[in-house]
């Protein structure tokens, strides 16, 4: 069985070396070129973080040249994310231009979510030059849609946070080993679904999923509590470590450690925890032995309980 | 390090080349940036200039300043530097350039301080200027009344178009089956707090059955047959609305699509079927190719979950936004997504009114109002909150007791937002209250108004 790999969110090239040393096999990052910023402003998202004041995107071509050097030296690729669920059709040429520039620098893997962009790339015979990962924001929740994405050029499918592992297994089986699969493992467990999210993800206003609410109806109203922030434990904002055995059985080979723009210390801790969990997974046989060993090692005092997957 | 969205610094090299850099550390007399060792060869060149592009939050636009009198000085490598890089210090005496840089640092520092010291809500209030205690409605009925129950008169007559109502919970199905259609509609407008609204005086032509977000609310086949029969006998055109199709429901959808085609064939009609994910259209195409159903008895409409655009009631509050209201990005360019959906047999597209222009491109498109979807979870947020006391503890459930009939997530009334079942909605009465605005939509290609509150 193929060894599972860690793909981790990178908010700054300064974090590349420590993340790789902590156990990341691959990084994913956002890059918004100056041309995009100037043409559409900071709030028209090129990826799912339309931020102005936060260091979430890798900036400037000179920084990317440095990143290309790091890739040559340390081996871990960086996948660039163009995962806004929708673009204006007239924005596609600039996106392709950006992808081409990245590809020339050695970064030819891209995460995309807008079916229109995938269709544009396919229609312009551009899918061959790029390695396309279909984001969970593209809404691939069934095998007919997944087969369609494969037909259009997908090489990897990222299962969304809310795809049951049983569904992942059925979809992976239906695809017959033609592509690879990735699933969320750590952090930022959203209460909703990115493919159906029309909310801002900027830094001045929290996404709508994080706005306080009250629950009305029979019984007592519940005061809204914001989702927990990054704390001392790995996976405080979402954790799928107990599910690694089942994810592997279902055909998932890449595990996403989310956190572009999160504190580097938190990401390092979470990547290291995920690596430790994978090492335990490799050395144990059945699921219960794995979970017992993993919890004993990583969570001797108890875990966050903020599970991605309820087994 | 200054975020690249805030400031972009191009070093303009002699010969027309430029070096795109990121500001690492602003200083009183310039800033530092870094390049790879390979790119540092030849630096610093004589005659280089710097083009600084900065975002002015107050004006919501980028401005550019050029400094010709710059000097570049390589700095000594530090232990924390990334290997094989060189950091340069750019200096200038250009006062406007330095003043803008200084302003940028103040804005950025202010943001960082607020980010560290304030909660997300407080930070949002600081940026939007909204202050004061949030006021919440007491319950869903209260919320609906606050949104809609007020005197409204249209100043012009509504242009001819189809008007639809949307029954999407079992109680409404039952009500439709037991009541006279006229009484059902009276009850519908009453429950929606729209009974005094002029839209309630328009002739309803269509009725939607089924919830676009939740499979548990979809009627059983027998019920659906009776609903369709009743609608047709009441001079209402039935429209069946399907939720998205997850893998675990694949075989159920296969059966359902076959059933809908058979039902339509029995009645000699084309059953309008609203789908809410591409996978359903692909499944239908593949079934038709295999001869498993007569797809010509179904007329497909792309539902609101396939209408991919930004809808956020707070978008107009962003610093420097010209007008309050949600952001839309209308486009006239050929849209490969729309063309692809048409190739899958989609004939009609659904949009939502949310206080801003809608990129209508069709001639029969449907406009849903006054609720517009903001976010949806495939598992139910409300089930999780009611069952487990934690909205995030979601799971796939085989059957649901129907918490959505009694409970909802309420947001500050000023946000005009409500969480119903697994979906968060905004509410825009702007369009519904203004026949002139509705007529503009109709002239632009909207052929149907679908009203639900």
Characterize the structure shown.
The complex is a heterodimer of chains A (311) and B (453). Chain A has 311 residues and is of the alpha/beta class. Chain A has one domain (5-206, 230-298): Aldolase class I (TIM Barrel), CATH 3.20.20.70. Chain A has ten helices and eleven strands. Chain A has helices at 16-22, 34-40, 61-74, 92-104, 115-123, 143-151, 165-175, 244-250, 264-283, 287-298; strands spanning 5-10, 26-31, 57-58, 77-82, 109-112, 131-134, 154-158, 180-186, 214-216, 222-223, 254-257. Chain A has an eight-stranded parallel β-barrel, surrounded by five helices. A two-stranded antiparallel ribbon of chain A has the order 9-10. In chain A, helix 6 links the parallel strand 6 and strand 7. In chain A, helix 6 (143-151) crosses helix 7 (165-175). Chain A is globular and about 50 Å long. In chain B, strand 3 (25-27) and strand 4 form a beta hairpin. The longest helix of chain B is centred in the first third of the chain and has 23 residues, at 95-117. Chain B is built from twelve helices and 19 strands. In chain B, 44% of the residues are buried. Chain B folds into two domains: 7-98, Pnp Oxidase, Chain A (Roll); 140-452, no CATH class. The interface between A and B is large, with 93 and 110 residues.
């Amino acid at each position: 069985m193929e060894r599972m790999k860690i793909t981790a969110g990178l908010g700054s090239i300064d974090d590349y070396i420590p993340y790789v040393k902590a156990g990341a096999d691959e990084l994913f990052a956002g890059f918004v070129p100056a041309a995009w910023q100037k043409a559409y402003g900071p709030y028209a998202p090129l990826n799912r973080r339309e931020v102005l004041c936060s260091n979430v995107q890798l900036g400037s071509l000179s920084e990317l040249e440095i990143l290309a050097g790091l890739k040559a030296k340390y081996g871990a690729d960086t996948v660039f994310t163009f995962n806004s669920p929708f673009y204006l059709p007239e924005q596609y040429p600039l996106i392709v231009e950006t992808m081409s520039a990245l590809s020339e620098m050695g970064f030819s893997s891209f995460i995309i979510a807008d079916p229109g962009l995938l269709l544009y790339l396919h229609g312009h015979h551009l899918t061959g030059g790029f390695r396309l990962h279909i984001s969970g924001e593209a809404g691939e929740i069934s095998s007919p849609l997944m087969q369609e994405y494969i037909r259009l050029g997908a090489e990897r499918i990222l299962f969304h946070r809310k795809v049951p592992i049983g569904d992942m297994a059925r979809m992976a089986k239906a695809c017959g080993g033609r592509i690879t699969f990735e699933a969320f493992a750590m952090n930022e467990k959203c209460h909703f679904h990115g493919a159906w999210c029309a909310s801002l993800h900027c830094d001045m206003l929290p996404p709508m999923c994080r706005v306080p609410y009250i629950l009305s109806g029979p019984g007592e109203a519940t005061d809204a509590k914001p989702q927990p922030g990054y704390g001392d434990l790995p996976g405080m904002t979402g954790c799928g470590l107990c599910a690694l055995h089942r994810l592997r059985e279902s055909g998932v080979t890449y595990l996403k450690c989310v956190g572009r723009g999160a504190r580097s210390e938190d990401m390092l801790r979470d990547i290291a925890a995920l690596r430790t969990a994978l090492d335990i997974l490799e050395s144990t046989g059945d699921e219960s032995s794995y979970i017992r060993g993993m919890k004993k090692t990583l969570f001797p005092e108890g875990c966050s309980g903020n599970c991605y997957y309820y087994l | 390090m200054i975020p690249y969205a805030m400031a972009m610094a191009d070093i303009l090299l002699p010969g027309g080349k430029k070096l795109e850099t990121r500001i690492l550390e602003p200083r009183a007399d310039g800033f530092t940036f870094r390049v790879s060792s390979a790119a540092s060869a030849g630096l610093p060149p004589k005659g280089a200039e710097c083009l600084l592009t900065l975002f002015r939050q107050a004006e919501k636009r980028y401005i550019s300043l050029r400094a010709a009198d710059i000097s570049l000085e390589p700095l000594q490598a530090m232990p924390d530097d990334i290997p094989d890089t060189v950091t340069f210090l750019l200096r200038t005496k250009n006062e406007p350039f330095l003043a803008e840089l200084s302003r940028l640092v103040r804005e950025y520092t202010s943001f960082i301080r607020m980010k560290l010291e304030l909660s997300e809500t407080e930070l949002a209030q600081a940026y939007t200027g909204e202050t004061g205690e949030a006021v919440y409605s007491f319950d869903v009925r209260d919320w609906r009344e606050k949104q809609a129950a007020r005197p409204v008169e249209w100043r012009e007559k509504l242009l001819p178009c189809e008007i639809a109502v949307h029954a999407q919970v079992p109680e409404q199905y039952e009500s439709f089956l037991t009541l006279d259609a006229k009484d059902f509609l009276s009850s519908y407008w009453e429950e929606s707090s729209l009974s005094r609204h002029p839209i309630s005086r328009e002739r309803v032509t269509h009725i939607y059955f089924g919830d676009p977000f939740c499979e548990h609310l979809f009627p059983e086949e027998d019920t659906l047959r009776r609903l369709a029969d009743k609608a047709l006998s009441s001079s209402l055109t039935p429209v069946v609305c399907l939720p998205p199709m997850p893998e675990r429901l694949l075989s159920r959808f296969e059966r359902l699509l076959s059933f809908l085609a058979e039902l339509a064939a029995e009645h000699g009609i084309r059953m309008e079927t609203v789908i809410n994910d591409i996978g359903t259209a692909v499944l239908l195409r593949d079934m038709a190719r295999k001869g498993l159903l007569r797809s010509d008895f179904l007329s497909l409409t792309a539902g609101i979950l396939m209408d991919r655009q930004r809808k956020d009631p707070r978008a107009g509050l962003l610093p420097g936004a010209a007008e309050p209201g949600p952001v839309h990005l209308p486009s006239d360019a050929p849209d490969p997504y729309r063309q692809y959906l048409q190739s899958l047999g989609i004939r009609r597209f659904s949009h939502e009114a949310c206080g801003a222009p809608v990129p209508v491109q069709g001639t029969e498109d449907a406009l849903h109002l006054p609720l517009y979807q903001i976010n949806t979870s495939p598992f139910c947020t409300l089930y999780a909150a009611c069952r487990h006391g934690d909205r995030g503890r979601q799971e796939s459930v085989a059957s649901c007791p129907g918490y959505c009939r009694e409970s909802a997530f309420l947001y500050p009334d000023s946000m005009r937002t409500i969480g119903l079942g697994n979906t968060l909605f905004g509410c825009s009465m702007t369009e519904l209250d203004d026949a002139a605005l509705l007529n503009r939509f109709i002239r632009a290609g909207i052929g149907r108004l679908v009203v639900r509150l």
